[in-house]
Structure formats: structure tokens, C-alpha cells
Prior knowledge:
The chain is built from one helix and eight strands, in the order ββββαββββ. By secondary structure, it is mainly beta.
Amino acid sequence: MSINTCAISGNLTRDPILRTTQGGTKVLTFSVAVNDRRKNPQTDEWEDYPNFIDCVVFGNRAESLSNLMAKGHKVSVQGKLRWSQWEKDGSKRSKVEVVADEVEIMSRRGQQEAAGQPQQQQANNYPNQPQNGQNSAYQRSQNGFQQQPQYYDEDCPF
């Protein structure tokens, strides 16, 4: 038995790229910057070292996400690792990428990311706003409604 699962969160390093296969399947590719903290032996200080993780989404979700994601957005990705190998110009190449099962857009560039800080959204950004005190997945803020992330935890290392 083997387990192949991963969860990462970080910022998109570039705008996602949407392609269509010859068979008509939508494929969205994007890259997420994930920091690793290490102690610098010379300065004895903790420093962030970025890791750039390639991710891919297939099908109808790929097209939907391509309209919502852009460079700098903070996302959470859950999926499985896939290793690919190919040959280019006579040399063998390979890479590991995340095939995403779940992608959550946690914030957009420039928004407050700290837990408990309201994000500056206009009420008309959410066409299906709760009415008459309904709460659902929305939370009332001073400036309108904002959708709350479902899996985000400030203390979680992912």
C-alpha cells in the first residue's frame, strides 16, 4: 500500500495558463511559491527560502479557476504528486507536479491576510448574498459580504 497526497499553500508566481487537449479536455497549469524556513549558519538568523511548485487542474474546474486566479493570489492546493519524464533536444528531463483535487483561493494580492481582519470587498461582488440574516458560507463585514475560506488555519504549516 502507498499513500500519495499533498497539501500546499502559497502565492501564485504567474498567471495560470489554460490549454485544451486534442480530445477537448481543459488543462490549467500554474505555479505556487511555498517558503521553507532555515537557519542561516553564518548569521544565526532564520531565513525564508522559496520553493516553486508546479500544479495542474483538469476538466471543467480548470476553466472556472482560470477566470478567478491571477499572479500574486494566495491559494491552498490539495492533491497528489505526479512524476513526468520526457526527452528534449536529446536530453532526458523530468519534473514532479501536483495534480490538484481541491484549489481554494484564500486571498487576492493586497488584501489583509491575517485571521480576523476583514477583507475589503464590495457587497455587489457576490450576486447570491444571504438575505434576512442567512449566514451560509458568507460573513457580514463592515463593507459588505465576504466569502470565508473553508480550510484556512493561520497556525497550520501548510
